[in-house]
Amino acid sequence: MIKFLVVTFLSIVISSCTSTNQTAKLVGKLNYELKKRYGITNGAIVAKFDLEKLNKKETLFAPYYAGIINDASLNNKFLGDFNKNYRHKNLLQTTAYKKINILNSVLLKINNKHKLFTKTITQRLNKIESNFKKHPEIRSGDRQDYVAILASLHQSTKFVPIFVPIENPIITDKFGKRTHPFKKTIRMHSGLDLAGKINCHVYAAADGVVDTVARMNGYGNTIIVAHDIGIKTKYAHLSKISVSQGDKVSLGQGLGNQGCSGVTTGHHLHFEILINGNPVDPMQFIKHSL
Predict the structure, then answer these.
(1) Contact (Cβ atoms closer than 8 angstroms) between residue 201 and residue 257
(2) Given a cut of 50, is residue 14 above it in pLDDT?
(3) Within 10 Å of residue 139's Cβ, how many Cβ atoms?
(4) Which of 42, 83, 102, 200 could form a disulfide with 151 if both were Cys (CB 3.0 to 4.6 A apart)?
(5) pTM here?
């Protein structure tokens, strides 16, 4: 199923990108249909997580999620495939239970380094970790709604950019000091260079608001998205921009296309995460999604 969806995703999503309003409608439809057809609440949140690959820790989010929320045909395809694989609610609860542990671990590591969350959220993350240490496997007869817990956990931290912004990227340059490719001097590289297919779509790494749309020296066509509590993400060297300043964007929503505008050695996305204006290593946030 996953392979089929990814192939379909690559063939469709490269040629289409919806508006912010249309994306919201597609997400709403998916959520409504999951609840109506299968009695699953928090359906839009369930769709965001790769329930098929839960035991592979290198995969955090579904590789086809961005396609689902940006393309109506994939939206409908997902509903059918979801029913085939998760018609039994016990299976859905078990996979959501495991996903909580993975997501919570990632968020705790980020928070320990950057102190992003409020005291209340931090306490909740620590409590979840403690509970999973006591009960590493879901227990028979457990009545908790783990899908709802997963949805609530995501809702509290949806501004944290832990989603890989392009499909199946190759890392071509890391964060940190490097020899500048043109000036041949040692300089700080403030982001992560990710190369996908030529002109592939670039997606929002978290929920937020488009703060800047501009052509910047060196970076070329650039989008900056503001998330929350001082977090921003930058997407540079784009060939196309599909959003405007002030637009609200959701995790996985199309922002534009990868390109080679500005000063570059080839097609790639320069991706930055900034906290209070200071760039931090994006790998701390997205390495579990690569």
Answers:
(1) yes
(2) no
(3) 9
(4) 42
(5) 0.79
**Rounded distance, CA 64 to CA 229, Å?**
28
Q: Do the beta carbons of residue 159 and residue 207 sit within 8 Å?
A: yes
SS3 201: strand
Encoding tokens for residue 56?
A: 């592979």
C-alpha 209/C-alpha 84 separation (Å) is: 36
Helix or strand holding residue 32 (H, E): helix 20-38
Hey, what are 32's tokens? Answer: 């409504």
Please count the other Cβ atoms lying within 10 Å of the Cβ belonging to residue 80. 11
Residue-wise pLDDT for 57-95, tens only, equals: 544 555 556 666 677 777 777 777 777 777 666 777 887
The distance in angstroms from the start CA to the end CA of the chain is 19
Query: What tokens appear for 44 in the block?
Result: 């839009």
| CA–centroid distance for 159 within its chain | 10
Which residues neighbour 235 within 8 Å (Cβ) at sequence distance 6 or greater? 165, 202, 222, 223, 224, 225, 255, 256, 269, 270, 271
5 within 8 A of 81, measured Cβ to Cβ = yes
Structure tokens at 111: 């928070």
Note the pLDDT tens digit of each residue in 187-221. 788 899 999 888 888 989 988 999 999 999 889 99
With tokens 């650039």, the residue in question is: 222
